[in-house]
């Protein structure tokens, strides 16, 4: 065995080197197969002739035969729901491969025809996401969630001018759940560790592919015939024949029809739409239950108001003077929805959403905001008596420097953060019961969980007891009075 003087290779370094060598061998075998009649996914190579595939299609095939194949292998090693889910992911990637080949031969069609070509893959993505929802009791639920939350990354073919960063955003959405997988299995089952590594590597490889071949968006063949009316359903080599590729983010981000909508959701939503009266029908928001609050906080002067750009803003202030000198704002700026200085606005709705969008609500009062579809994150900053209703968030919902906030989750959200806030009621859905709620410097924050057609309320601890146990500090929440 070759040894370098003065150094000792760790097992991790050796495993990493072996993995890189294996990937290199797979790539070499892929290239070699073109000259020996071995067909890659898609069946374009017959007797060693590749049919003049464009370089971008060749490169996509290399990615399928390396990164995707590794993920499928590790999924099969785990088996059960993870393997079934992986088969759906494979079908979606194969469908996208068809679309990349289509674009390499044809000119871009009119938008209406393009939407028709893209629609089938959005159905495939919905199938992947629905599989997770139908198997919420699965012991592999975190695996299914990681895939479900990141699979819309296949929508990069409809994103311009930065499809690569879009894929990275979706990959980041998966890490919340892959970290849970690692936490559960890293010390007792390396199959799951390998699965996480290969799944995240799949998206990393896709980003590298996009950067090299489609930096500012999917490249079409400007000299080819128009793709209008072209069908992606064509003869293929033996194997599963999945439907075509991804629609633009707005198409995949539309959530599947909810088959568990209930009267309690409708009733609560009606209450949230009452605007200023939003707090009258909900629990624990009566003035008599707020005697512990410091009245001086309501009369403190504020720092001169500036145009907000970040969630970190000055300490809570009285918003009335500022609201009088600022016009209300509800507009999309880049990928950020700005909702600012709204006062007594009972029915604010944001419906044209994409996964990359962030909603930033600043200095709004006595208002109700509904956000439809699936977005990246929501920030509520320096707001007072705001009702927030949203469908799905892949990142975080953050409430900071606010008072009397009502939040209702209709779908999924991985994390809700509440900081420097007085009075926040969070209504979780059945789908969001695994949400992590992080809080600091708060008072009167309550989590409401659906039970038997109603909600059961649980207060978030505000006081803690810390003791020295002889070797370390031990902190526990104290029992809350009342």
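Sequence proposed for the structure above (482 residues):
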């Amino acid at each position: 065995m070759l040894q370098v003087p003065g150094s000792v290779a760790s097992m991790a370094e050796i495993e990493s080197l072996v993995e890189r060598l294996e990937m290199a061998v797979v790539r070499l075998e892929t290239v070699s197969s073109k000259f020996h009649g071995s067909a890659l996914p898609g069946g374009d190579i017959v007797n060693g002739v590749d049919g003049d595939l464009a370089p971008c299609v060749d490169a996509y095939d290399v990615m399928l035969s390396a990164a995707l194949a590794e993920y499928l292998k590790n999924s099969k090693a785990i088996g059960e729901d993870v393997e079934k889910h992986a088969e759906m992911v494979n079908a979606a990637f194969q469908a996208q491969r068809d679309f990349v080949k289509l674009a390499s031969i044809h000119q871009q069609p009119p938008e209406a025809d393009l939407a028709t070509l893209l629609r089938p893959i959005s159905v495939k993505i919905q199938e992947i996401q629905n599989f997770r929802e139908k198997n919420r009791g699965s012991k592999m639920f975190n695996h299914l969630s990681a895939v479900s939350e990141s699979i819309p990354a296949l929508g990069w073919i409809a994103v311009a001018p930065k499809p690569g960063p879009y894929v990275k955003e979706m990959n980041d959405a998966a890490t919340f759940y892959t970290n849970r997988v690692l936490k559960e299995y890293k010390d007792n089952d390396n199959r799951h560790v390998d699965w996480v590594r290969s799944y995240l590597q799949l998206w990393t490889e896709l980003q590298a592919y996009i950067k090299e071949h489609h930096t500012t968006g999917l490249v079409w063949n400007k000299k080819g015939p128009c793709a209008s009316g072209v069908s992606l359903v064509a003869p293929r080599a033996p194997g599963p024949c999945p439907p075509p590729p991804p629609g633009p983010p707005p198409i995949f981000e539309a959530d599947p029809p909810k088959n568990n909508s209930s009267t309690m959701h409708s009733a609560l939503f009606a209450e949230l739409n009452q605007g200023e009266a939003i707090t009258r029908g909900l629990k624990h928001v009566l003035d008599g239950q707020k005697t512990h609050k410091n009245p001086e906080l309501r009369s403190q002067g504020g720092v001169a108001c500036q145009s907000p750009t970040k969630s970190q803003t000055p300490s809570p202030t009285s918003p009335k003077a500022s609201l009088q000198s600022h016009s209300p704002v509800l507009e999309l700026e880049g990928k950020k929805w700005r909702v600012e200085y709204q006062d007594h606005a009972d029915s604010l709705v944001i419906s044209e959403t994409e996964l990359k969008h962030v909603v930033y609500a600043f200095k709004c009062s006595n208002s109700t905001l509904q956000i439809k579809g699936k977005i990246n994150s929501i920030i509520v900053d320096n707001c007072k008596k705001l009702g927030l209703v949203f469908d799905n968030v892949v990142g975080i919902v953050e409430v900071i420097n606010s008072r009397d906030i009502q939040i209702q989750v209709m779908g999924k959200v991985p994390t809700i953060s509440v900081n420097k806030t007085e009075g926040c009621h969070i209504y979780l859905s059945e789908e969001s019961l695994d949400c992590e709620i992080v809080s600091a410097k708060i008072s009167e924050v309550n989590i409401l969980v659906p039970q038997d057609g109603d909600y059961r309320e649980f207060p978030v601890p505000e006081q803690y007891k810390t003791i020295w146990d002889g070797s370390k500090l031990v902190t526990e929440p104290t029992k809350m009075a009342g």
